[in-house]
Amino acid sequence: MRHITRSLAGLILTLLVISFVIFLVMEAVPGDPAEIMLGTSAAPDTLAALREQMGLDQPFFVRYLDWLTGLLQGNLGESYTYRTPVSDLIGERLMVTLPLTGLAVFLSVAISLPLGVLAAARPNGIIDAFASLFAQIGIAVPNFWIGLLLILGIALTLGWFPAGGFPGWEAGFWPALMALILPSVALAIPQAAVLTRVTRAAVIEITNEDFVRTARAKGASPSHALWRHVVPNALIPVVTMLGMQISVLIAGAVLVENVFTLPGMGTLAYQALAQRDLIVIQNVVLFFAAIVMVVNFIVDALYTVLDPRLRTRR
Questions:
Q1: Could you give the number of structural domains in the chain?
Q2: Which of 73, 148, 181, 202 has a CA 20 to 30 Å removed from the CA of 27?
Q3: Cβ–Cβ contacts within 10 Å for residue 298, how many?
């Protein structure tokens, strides 16, 4: 319990530091949001009035504290471009990004875990060779390129899935899910390639441990020793790598959502950056950072579930 409390305190402190860094970086981005909205031909008094309305005439620390106070109260501000609350924009886009990333994580684990375990169970076999080839290709090819190949090879040629766009969940669960399958596959393949290598290496390492040989000496079959003793102990590095891959997955979602024209958080961040909608960029980047931090906290808590030695030590 003390360890979890300490981790929570560290998470909150880290998010405060990240929020300040994000605000500082956004301040250094060239260009004036008010001038971008009104155009370069706007009159100086009109420009000054808009800057005052947007709060851009206030000092740096005053604007940062106002933003931080609004975050604590659940008020993320109003978008300069869309003229709507940022919380509404993020809420709408999360209905696309969260199912997309969740499906991508599920697919990457569903592919990598059995493939890595079976490859380690028979080193230098056919499955091991296929797993090695899959890992090399998956790591080498970017996810947006995989998305383009899926659009050309499956969506446009075979017509099994939509080539892009999102009909919305109000159009029905199945049409919305079909629109997310190809993007989630494009996101999942590079992550599955990395996790396959990690799983294979972890299983081979645990297989050579003394407790596994002891279980085999007591009469445990190879399959029983593999799934009962080896795989549970090999999950710790796999879970660690999965937590680290969340940030890569979020970064990949920005590109993949634009490739498939999905109205998700990645597309929102890209559009806000192009229009210099600072308040949207700040909140989206902070939200992404918070997701990564929370996932790492959950992974840290899972260690105590997967490894009883940590519970005893703590």
A1: 2
A2: 73
A3: 12
Q: Does 122 fall in a domain?
A: yes
> Does residue 86 lie in a domain region?
no
Helices 173-207 and 231-259: crossing angle, nearest 10°? Answer: 140
Contact 255, 144 (CB under 8 A): yes
* Residue 7 lies inside a defined structural domain of this protein: no
* Closest to 116 in 3D by CA, of 301, 5, 21, 242: 242
Could you say which residues of the chain have pLDDT below 50?
none
The verdict on 132 and 244 lying in the same domain is yes
Q: Which two tokens stand for residue 180?
A: 């997310």
H-run or E-run covering 158: none
Together in a domain, 28 and 116? no
Q: What are phi and psi of 85, to 5 degrees?
A: -60, 140
172 and 65 together in one domain:
no
CA 210 to chain centre: 37
Structure tokens at 145: 């390129």
Residue range of the domain that includes 43: 13-72
Ramachandran sector of residue 142 (left: φ over 0; alpha: ψ -120 to 50; beta: rest):
beta
- To which residue do tokens 């099994």 refer? 160
Q: Quote the CA–CA distance of 262 and 256 in Å, as a whole number.
A: 8
- The 10s digit of each residue's pLDDT in 236-265 is 788 778 777 777 777 777 788 888 888 888
Taking the C-alpha atoms of residue 118 and residue 200, their distance in angstroms, rounded to an integer, is 8
Q: What is the CATH number of the domain that holds 183?
A: 1.10.3720.10
Whether residue 273 sits in one domain with residue 153: yes
160-176: pLDDT as tens digits: 888 888 888 888 888 88
Closest CA to 118 of 108, 128, 109: 128
Give the position of tokens 């596959």.
185
Q: Rounded distance, CA 30 to CA 114, Å?
A: 49
Same domain, 19 and 167: no
Shared domain for 113 and 168, answered yes or no, is: yes
